[in-house]
């Protein structure tokens, strides 16, 4: 049913945009929960799960008890579910969508017979064509010779029918476990020197980075855990400015954190684990063996280890002709400057809130004026550059309307960016050039 038809039936219907990515993540989480019933749990389309419970039903006192257990647990989580259990995957899908329940063992054909042909996981166009021929149920289709159906429809329909009835096999692909990026090393004798820890860390990084490389992935954070002989643990987390899997570079970044580890009476075991793993396809290496921008990212990582990555920001250009809105701040480690900086007119190095000046001049820069308790004289000026406010945005700073900007050089050596407001006459300093 379309949205317009649904609202015709229910005028107060509440709708929200679908978040397919969030639905997918939730379905994966639900599939992992389903492994309490069987290790063979996988996804079925965009809104279903498929479980192979062969050899597992007796652990829950049979299929009926397992079904009730699933319903009860899902209900406690405020989830509604339609569940079908049958000898074949196709039959279980048909029951779940059209007649929730259990098909008795060996009676799959009789159970599916009264169901609509749409229960065979076929598209709506094929189902409509079958119904026009008088084949409304699966029993009607099963009564016809396969050759007759094959001449009118493709082999895909025959395959779906045979999979549902069990004459053709169909595998259940369980959800694969996420890769684990962790390595560890146990020492025959406790170690305590920084050089020894770094040497062991280098070996672990080689193994860890090889795993990341095989999956074309990179780590945003790497945690080093050390276990001392007194059974106490100490963790050091290195947060990276970009996904990385280059062992030697990561090892250099670990030098300072490792130097702060208190070895106590000795370290007998270390463990290395990569967190926040992201996709990292292969890239072309430039001069010096580094990819473009990696040297800057290493610097950000080193500074972030001292003051925190969230405290290091960079400027991102924004499409606005208003000076103070022409940029925004983004985290240096988690954002990339994608837009190009365009400067049709020179802009000051330092930009601050407009500060009034004392002057009696009209539309041209005053020859003498006072600013910040300084008496200044104009040596030269250029302009004006007229900037109009963005009327669609409420901004108290631009309530005075148009601004005519001038670049003013003073005899005292200051280069000011000044503007005049024609509607409410007045002069202001908005920035300083270098």
UniProtKB/TrEMBL annotation:
Cofactor(s) required for function per UniProt: Mg(2+)
Enzyme class: transferase
Top-level taxon of origin: Bacteria
This protein's UniProt keywords: DNA damage, Transferase
Biological processes, Gene Ontology terms: DNA repair
Residue span(s) of domain DNA polymerase Y-family little finger: 181-280
An MF annotation (GO) of this entry: transferase activity
UniProt keyword Transport present: no
Pfam family, one: IMS
Catalytic activity: DNA(n) + a 2'-deoxyribonucleoside 5'-triphosphate = DNA(n+1) + diphosphate
Domain UmuC: 1-94
Enzyme Commission code(s) on record: 2.7.7.7
SUPFAM superfamilies for the chain: DNA/RNA polymerases
Function: Poorly processive, error-prone DNA polymerase involved in untargeted mutagenesis. Copies undamaged DNA at stalled replication forks, which arise in vivo from mismatched or misaligned primer ends. These misaligned primers can be extended by PolIV. Exhibits no 3'-5' exonuclease (proofreading) activity. May be involved in translesional synthesis, in conjunction with the beta clamp from PolIII.
Protein name: DNA-directed DNA polymerase
